[in-house]
Each structure stands twice: as structure tokens, then as C-alpha cells.
Fold this protein.
Amino acid sequence: MRRLAATAFLALLLVLAVPGTAAADEDNWSIPRYDLTASAAADGAVDVRLSFDFDFAGTEGHGPYVTLPLRQRIAGDPDHERAFTVTDVTAASPSGAPAQVETEEDGGALAIRVGDEDVEVDGVQSYEIGYRIRGVVNPATGTAGQDEIFWNVVGDAWEVPLSGVTVRLTGPAAVVGARCSAGQDGSDAACAAADVAGDTVTYRQDRVEPGTGLTVTAAWPAGTFVGAEPQLVPRRHLGNTFTLDPLTGGLAAALALVGAGALAAHARRRGRDQQYVGLTPGLGPVGAETAATVPRSRRAPVAVRFTPPDGVRPGELGTLLDEVAHTHHVTATVVDLAVRGHLRITETRAADGDGDGGTEVRSWRLVRTAERDRPVERLLPYEDLVLQRLFDGRSEVALDDLGPSFTGTVGKVQAALYAAVTDQGWFVANPATVRRRWYGIGAAVLLAGAALTLVLALTVGWGLVGLAVVLVGVLVLVVAHTMPARTAAGSAVLAQALGFKTYLETAEADQIRFEEGEDLFSRYLPHAIAFGVAERWAGVFAELAARGHDVPVPAWYVGPQPFAFAAVGGSSFADTLGAFSQAATTSMTAATAGTSGGSGMSSGFAGGGVGGGGGGGW
């Protein structure tokens, strides 16, 4: 049996958890008499009777409390703790004070509270507390193999001083040795007395101050106690909850590899885009023709395309390209509706209010065009939704004041964009639904792995195996956004979109060709916003204007001064367009977010024994 090393029981946390413990105005409380009688049976059970006087010193209190450890660290054995069992707790007051008893386990300790929370007492009151404790006997641990009790009968967690301390320890046979120490942990100062008389040792100490303790040792012949071996319970820590050995390491590696392999196989089989075989990228079968499909190669060259795919709205094109319906795709839809004549964007400027007149603040208003001036065309559901929520029965609205009328609209428009690209057969399944499903799977695997880690770590020390499951969950979450897969038809349109995006990204001013009166800038601007290259596209036309070309002025945009692509007063329309796009995206996002809310044996020095604890008044 290993020799047990000293560990002071830290009951302060438990003491703080007991309501109404001694405060500053109760500093004068004390225990002027403290008698503890303990009788150890041959089976190791120790019956304890604690009799003491509690002096409330003119400050009323409810009664005393005592804390006893139920767990204690073992020096040299990090994988176990020594356990104690306390039963049969009783309390009485010979002086007539309330003596109701309440017990509570917390933090590896037992709190015994005596008194009535509705009644306060004063003066000196007498109390008796009784209990039975198992686990304090150390068989065959003496230098000659004796059985011992090495016990911190007064722990260092007492909050009040103890005077007139007497401890009587009786065993089932004649005592063959005894000693005691008093003071702070590690002290070898002998207590006032340790007198042996047959099977009993009487220990005395005049005073025990708060933060110090009294440790007693008594030895009996080997074999005195039978079946009284210390109670050891597993103690879990990083070293033994995540044990790495061939078994746990192999299982963890196998789980991680199998999970990652299954995820990769699924992603390869169902998470990859498809493309037509034998057809030029961007083209699909004509009429009733069919074509075989294979996984799409992301290395295929992109052919520049000078026009967008026929009949595809900018927001849909951006969603197809990104696999995500972003807020700027909604902004592109607003501008597209303006270009097509359903609304007008009006810019205003005002001084910033600082009084120096040197800085202007830009703002924009969206103006609904008169019904007679609107084009006759069928709007898509999400386009109609945008117009309804933007104006909400009004003829115009400030971009900064979208507020409640636009709450939730961005999310609904995004959902409609996902539905549109799915209904047109460009994706195997709705991208948002696929991502949500895989994020849900990843979160479920992650939580299951965390629970499994906790269970395995605290039971058999195989936490590493559970961590492998956690790793698989993390991998699923990482790749969830890549799970939406385009169909071969979707890949064909994607090739066209990539070709048109390349054109918008690379076109130079001297490469732009348009017919007289043709507003090529406005026609492709919504696509440029959806692709994130609007400012560059505007910059190309600013350069054309600076060279003297007759560039048509957009009719859907009204500014505070005559429209000019090239810089006027240090600002170009490219700057203005960038500011508007940012303001529109911010305003729509803010409108949506606004309501979404959002744990020595033989040395005999003080504190070196088992048990301990403390107490005080409440």
C-alpha cells in the first residue's frame, strides 16, 4: 500500500457556497471548547461525536457548520483519489439552541449545517454533532507493518479559532504508538499532549487558529483492522482520460480515417459538379438530344464571352457562380430593376454638420417610376417582392430609412434566388438546403463526439477515441459549404457566366464597342455588381468619357449635378457607384438584422493525514 502524502483539503469553495457564512462583523466568533471522541471498529468504521461550545460574541447567528472531505488527492498516484464515506449524521444542542441539521455535497466535500435559518441565537451555545466515517484507516502502513490512523481531525479550513481542543481516539486493540502535530501544513510542531491508555489515545491542544490544523496519528498491531483498506476512486486528468496506446491510438486513427474517407467518397460521388461529355463548355444538348455527363474539371479553360447568358437575371447568375445568394446579389437586383425602368435612384449630398463645409455626406432615395412609364414585362417573384417591400405603398424611400418595411426581405429574396437556380435545373438540390443539412450533420457528429469523449474519458480513459469522432464532425462542418453540386446544365451556364465575368474584369476602354445611343454600361452594370467588379466596369466608361467618347448617360440615376463618368470635383461615377452599392447592402442588411435578435503517513506532520475540512458559523 502506498504511503499517503499530505494534501490539505480546500473546503473554502464549499464554505463560500453555504449561505450566510461568517462575515466581517462576526470576526469575534470562536469555539472556546472543542471535544472530539472517535471510536474505530475492526472493520474500519469510525464513529465520531463532536461536542463543542460556540461563542457568538454579541453578534447573533443561526448556528455552526462543519465541512468534511469526501475526496482527497494521493501523492505519487495521480490516477486515484482517496474517498471517504460519511453517514448517520446527527445534531443536538444541550443549551437548547435550534439544532436542525442539513447536509450538502459539493466539490468533493460534505457540509453539515446546524441551526434554523429563521431563528438567530446569541451568547455561548453548546452543540453535538455525530457521524460515522469510513476510509480513514491505513492498514499495514507503519514502519513495522502496524495498522494506523493518520488523521487531520481539525482541518485548516476552519474560519473561527478553536480553544481547549481535546481528541479521544479509541481502537479495537491496545495502541502501540501515537503522536500529533499542530500548525500550518508541513509543520512538525508537537501538540500539547498525546497520552496513551490501553486502546485509547487522548490528544490536547490549547488553541488552533484559523488556517492551521491538528493532525493525530495512532498505531495498532498489524491485522487489527480487517477489510478496512482505503477506498480509492479513479481521478481523471489529461494524462489518463486521453490515454495514447496501440489500442486507443489505433481505434482513434481508424475512426478518423473511416469518417474522413466516407466524407471524401460522398463528396466525390455526389458533391461534385457535372458537365457534358463531348460538348463545348457552355453548350448543352439541343432539343431531344442527350449527352453523357462526367465530373466537371475545374481546370478547364474559360472562353471569354461578350454577353451574359440569355434570359438569366444578374442575381441568379451571381448565385449560380458563388453557390451562395449574397446580399450584393439583392443589390444587383435593385439596380437591374432601375436599369429596366421600374425605379429611379436619386443621389443627394449635404454638409456633414461640422460647420466647415468641407465634407459632404452622400445619401440616396429610391423613386418608383410612374405606372405609365414602366415597361410591360412579367417580373419574377423575387423581383416583385423587392419592389413591394422597398416602397410599401410609397412612391419613394430613402435608402437609410428602409427599416421595418424591408425587415426579412433580404432573406426571402435570397431564398427565392436559391429556388430559382434550383428550379431551372442548375443544381442537383437547393444549395441552401444542402448546406443546412450538412451543417446539421456536422454539428450532430461534433456534439455526439464531444459526449462520447466525455463518457469514454471519465470511464475507461479512451477520450482520444471520442476526439476522433469530434474531428470527423469538424471536417464535415469545414466541407459543408462545398456540398452543393451543379448539374451538367448548371455547369454549361456557369461556363458562360465565367466567360462573361472575365470580359467585365479584363475589358479595356479601347475594346468596348457599342452602337450609337446604346447604353452598354447600364445593361451590364447589374451583372458587374453581382460579380463584384462594378467599380472597374464604371472605371472603363469613365476612361472612355475622358477620351471624349459620347457615352450615353444612364437615365435611371439622378445626381445633384450633371452626370459625368469622368472625375468631377475629385469624384467619378465609379466612386459614386461603389458608395451606393456599399450603402445599399449595409442598409438592407441592417434592416434584416434589426429584428432577428439576435470543474507521510509516517512523518506525522500537520496536515499530512487524511480528512480535514473545517467549519464556522452562519
